[in-house]
Design brief:
Blueprint: H1 14-25, E1 30-33, H2 37-54, E2 76-82, E3 85-93, H3 102-107, E4 117-125, H4 135-151, E5 155-160, H5 162-170, E6 173-177, E7 182-184, E8 187-197, H6 199-203, H7 208-215
Helix pairs in contact: 1-4
Length: 231
C-alpha cells in the first residue's frame, strides 16, 4: 500500500517555533543525540528495561541487558537527560535505497514520498518521568522534528497504538494512517506517517499542552501513553 505526499501546509515553518516551546517546557530536561558509547549503552539499557517491563519481546530475545537491532547502526538516538540520568529516548532512521524502513518491512508497504520519509520509533520515557502533561514525550518529539528539518525531512514513519494516535490527534500532529493495524511488538499497532503539529491549534488553545502552558492547569492525560506506544 502506498500513499502520495500531500502538499506542505502553510504553517510548516512556524512548527519550528512550536517545537522550541515544547523543549523549553520540559526544562530542566536536556535533549541531545547520543554520541558516546556510554550514552548509547544507556539508551539501549533503558529500551531493554521497558521492553522487559511490558513483555513486548520473548525472554529468549532479551538475553543481554540491552535492546537493539540492525537499524541502530545507522540510527540517530535522541536522548532526554536529567543531568546524568536518562529520562527518555527516541530514534530516527534515515531512509536507504537498499533497505526498507522498519514499518515498511513489518507491514509490507512503501511510505511515500519514497526516500523522503525518515523512520521513527523506540519512543520511551522512563517511569519516574512519565506524567499527564507528557513533558518528556513532547520534548523528544519536538527535538526529533527539529533534527528532521535539519536533515531535510518533512515526514516520519512508524507505528502507533490507538492510544498514541488519540494523543497525537489531541496534540495537533499531522498523522496519516497507512493501513490496518496488526500485532507488532506485543500490541495492535497502526502503520503511520506523521508530520509536525499544527501551531494554529496551539494558538487557539485546542490542545491540552497549550492549555497547561498558558494557564498552569495540568492536562488531563494518561502517563501510560508516554511508554513505547510508537515503536
Amino acid at each position: 500500500m502506498t500513499r502520495s505526499a500531500p502538499e506542505d501546509p502553510r504553517w510548516l515553518d512556524s512548527a519550528d517555533a512550536l517545537s522550541r516551546r515544547l523543549i523549553a517546557r520540559a526544562h530542566p530536561i536536556q535533549f541531545t543525540v547520543a554520541a558516546t558509547p556510554a550514552e548509547l549503552d544507556a539508551v539501549f539499557r533503558l529500551r531493554h528495561e521497558i521492553v522487559t517491563e511490558h513483555g513486548w519481546l520473548p525472554p529468549e530475545d532479551l538475553r543481554e541487558p540491552t535492546e537493539s537491532d540492525e537499524y541502530d547502526e545507522q540510527a540517530l538516538q535522541i536522548a532526554a537527560w536529567d543531568v546524568d540520568t536518562l529520562a527518555g529516548t527516541l530514534r530516527l532512521i534515515p531512509p536507504r535505497h537498499d533497505r526498507p524502513l522498519p514499518v515498511e518491512a513489518a507491514y509490507g508497504l512503501v511510505v511515500e514520498p519514497r526516500g523522503e520519509v525518515i523512520g521513527a520509533g523506540r519512543v520511551i520515557v522512563a517511569r519516574p518521568y512519565r506524567d499527564a502533561e507528557h513533558r518528556v514525550l513532547g520534548g523528544l518529539s519536538a527535538t526529533a522534528w527539529l533534527l528532521m528539518r535539519k536533515l531535510g525531512f518533512r515526514w516520519a514513519a512508524g507505528t502507533a497504538t490507538s492510544e498514541i494516535l488519540d494523543l497525537f490527534e489531541h496534540l495537533g500532529f499531522e498523522v496519516t494512517v497507512l493501513g490496518e493495524p496488526q500485532a507488532y511488538w506485543g500490541e495492535e499497532r497502526y502503520p503511520i506517517r506523521m508530520g509536525a503539529a499544527d501551531p494554529s491549534r496551539w494558538a487557539s488553545g485546542s490542545t491540552g499542552f497549550d492549555r497547561e502552558a498558558r494557564l498552569g492547569v495540568p492536562v488531563d492525560g494518561d502517563p501510560s501513553t508516554d511508554v513505547g506506544r510508537g515503536l
